[in-house]
Amino acid sequence: MTSANRPLLLSNVRLADAHHGHDRQLVSVSVVGARIEAIGPNVAAPPDAIVEDGGGALLLPGFVEGHTHLDKTLWGRDWYVNEVGPNLTDRIANEREFRKSTGYDAGEQSLALSRAFLAAGTTRLRTHVDVDTDAGLRYLEGVLDTRDTLADVLDMQIVAFPQSGMLIRPGTDELLGNALAAGADVLGALDPALIDGDPVGSLDATFALAERYGKPIDIHLHEPGEIGAFTLKLLLDRVEALGMQGRVVVSHAFCLGALPEPTALLERVARLRVALLTSAPPSRPVPPLKRCRELGITILGGNDGIRDTWTPYGVPDMLERAMLIGMRYDLRRDDDLAVAFDCVSAAAASGCGFADYGLQPGARADLVLVDAQTVAHAVVARPARKLVMANGRIVARDGVLTNGV
């Protein structure tokens, strides 16, 4: 692994452009410590720098995973035969029983998936981790170990998530508080009406916890149509009353894709600076991407679960997720595909609150090189990552982690 203390010059790379490819001017990037010092066509190598020739590859910022579940994954394990029932509650109960009966190791599994994310260019990541009265903080402790192990290269946010519900499982709210005290960065929540059966009480408890611990909120809102819209309005009331503007993400928000006229609700979401997360599932309604962006709403992308008891699908590759976002929203023009990439890069960093992101001096040195002519080409072709730099260190070459990662 390249030392973060020795300067590096990454030469002969091309900056991304939505409309042009091979004719773009070659630039160099100087990296000192963990930061980009300079970027441009005539950047000199810092003293005692390692020089890395990018070979004309396209330079992208490190990718951002806005919503996954590291503590659930079966990545690298034998195939799981999925025979679970069709309802959300079936999946929750099945997963809880599977992990309890098999001695599932969230530390081992989250580390395996995190390393795969890193090899594919993801350098910042938000993961939801189950906290419930069966498991207590066991899964959180495993993911905290993974975060510590990869702290030098992977910037990880952990959401304390009541996957089995909060009010319906007494004691969960106390466990969530313990999780926040133990190192979780964000407070999660789940379907206050359809799971907890009391949207007012559930949201009041969630916002009270967030206020007590000074944490932002990221809520799973699968609730459909008018039910989801009702819950979302209650949530927005609390954002406004408690001054939580810019500190709440609504994940999935299927209701916004099902309402016949969501403009008034979207305008309020925009005004209160609530961000929206979509995995762009093909089988569910999704928030209107272009309308959200027109209104100034930050809408970001994530994989959700990857190869777990809920779903056999998913890979830890944010270029593939950007492609799936493009397909779900019928994005075909190159500039539209650049929007899909934004959902897993700058918009995701903004929505999650990851600081110092991007390709400019002073930003954290998270860089990805791919053999592609444009961003659109990279999203569609998903080429192997020639090089991945995270926090000023080269961590992967040709899709394989380097020694020491």
Automatic annotation (TrEMBL):
InterPro entries: Amidohydro_3, Metal-dep_hydrolase_composite, Metal_Hydrolase, Metallo-hydrolase_Enzymes. It holds the Pfam family Amidohydro_3. GO terms for molecular function: hydrolase activity, acting on carbon-nitrogen (but not peptide) bonds, in cyclic amidines. It comes from the Bacteria. Residues 52-396 form the Amidohydrolase domain. PANTHER family: BLL3847 PROTEIN, CYTOSINE DEAMINASE. This is Cytosine deaminase. It comes from Paraburkholderia silviterrae.
